[in-house]
Write the structure tokens for this entry.
Amino acid sequence: MKLAIIGVGLIGGSVALKLRAAGVVEQVFGVDANTEHLEAAARNGIIDKYGSLQHALEETDLILLAIPVDATTKLLPQVLDLVQEHQIVMDVGSTKAGIAASVKNHPNRAQYVAFHPMWGTENSGPDSATADSFAGRSAVICDATDSSSHALETAEFVAQALGMNVLHMDAASHDIHAAYISHISHITSYALANTVLEKEREEDRIFQLASSGFSSTVRLAKSHPEMWVPIFRENKENVLDVLNEHISQLRKFKSALEKENWELLEELIRSANRIRGILK
Amino acid sequence: MKLAIIGVGLIGGSVALKLRAAGVVEQVFGVDANTEHLEAAARNGIIDKYGSLQHALEETDLILLAIPVDATTKLLPQVLDLVQEHQIVMDVGSTKAGIAASVKNHPNRAQYVAFHPMWGTENSGPDSATADSFAGRSAVICDATDSSSHALETAEFVAQALGMNVLHMDAASHDIHAAYISHISHITSYALANTVLEKEREEDRIFQLASSGFSSTVRLAKSHPEMWVPIFRENKENVLDVLNEHISQLRKFKSALEKENWELLEELIRSANRIRGILK
């Protein structure tokens, strides 16, 4: 199979590395607005060649869009305009409803599979790509009934090659669950970083005193706005809903402290401890 | 040197393992209200023997209190009542002002060093102890002028054997910095866990969809209330101060989303990204 990666960053690069290592693709064609990324990806063995989207579409079987979700919403209909009958298109976006809507009535909709591999880091660019990141994690396929069986088989084959477990959801449900489990933790981490940077004016102290716990909690705050503003924008209602809940949960801690209600504080902590039973 | 560990949990156990591995102590005496912990610690080679506090004080040179901060505040004056002239006492508590106040005018105050090694995990108990956890992290010594030079030399020798970098602060400053950099991240993590458990009623989905990012952000929410309620209680004012700032930072994200002010959202994220320059 010949693969085109549209956006040779962390996710696109990691998918390409793994599919090549698994012997699933024999050639990878890179497309990216950033020439430095293309050159780095070629150097790192992520892609064999690069060029325009049109050129990529002439040479490849599977086209993977790994660009910010707003860019995907714009580009996906254009890619579907151009695909030949045998070609399959997938994206890896962290929101799905807007992307799904952008091609809802496209004549080639069946050649597209909405795909979300649940892995990422705070880093970006092809230099951060690694082959074995996806193994054991979930990949969500959305609105499977809108895709052809050939397209679905290809997506499942890709997921299997990445070592991922496939889950099926409709795009709207995906976006709700993603807000609860992924998007909110980015907001809490960004806000924590801003809190500490606001309060701790001696920046040296942050470096000196940061334990592994603080580093872990604030890690996602390093994630770039180019990826995350479009996600929050696409998933605004769901993110606001869970953000309101989160502020209300923090207010309970505040109230327990203000009222010196140590029984309530202990209860809130014991409730949070239930996460240990879910994430071992 | 003969070491007594009062509280053979994660921290006490890890200190004992490392000091023994470094050849600094030749015998470790364990004291703990929990007999199962003592037996586990003996099995794991953390302690050689165990018994009462009185017994420990007859046989050892260095007494390390590694129990919750409220228990330290109660026990430390009693330990200082009993120490012989050559003995040194240290604690590892995450708050320092209350503990320092509890022995401020004690006749043996100079034999005590207020010590805070900046490491921990969400786990507890001697089975979680590991020898090489502390290396490269900071250890804070508070109110050094209240300790004798012999006591300080012992504490610095211990820090060196643990591979830690020593910082000096007064107890009040320590508690402010600890609230900013360590205590608040526990509250945000607990509140995030409660948020997700409240919104995501399909618990299977949390397990299935949890990316490494979510797991990392919510990891501290597994930490036990036995340790953390006393910390928040001791450091109430500083924690409330930073918690208020944190809620106000989250409200900025909320406002940016509600008003669809994507420039502000990007600005908030770019501000948070500055943490990358501090924590590589």
